[in-house]
Amino acid sequence: MDPITNGDYPHIMDSLIRNKLPKFSEEESKLLKGSFDFLGLNYYNALYAAYAPQFNSGNKRYSTDPRVNQSRKHN
Question: Which domain of life is it from (predicted)?
Fold first, then answer.
């Protein structure tokens, strides 16, 4: 939601994902910021997530970007 509320991605996203994110021009950022009239969000998830700060750096892929271990069991 940060792009539509603040005009850019959150800093943590930029630091973790960097070159995978499209860049907004200054004009695009201004157009995005506050561009919504209504926002409805339903979020469902059947997995638990636990913070996983370290991954094998040679094994980075899309599924490791969030830096979480996912499981169906609550620890």
Answer: Eukaryota
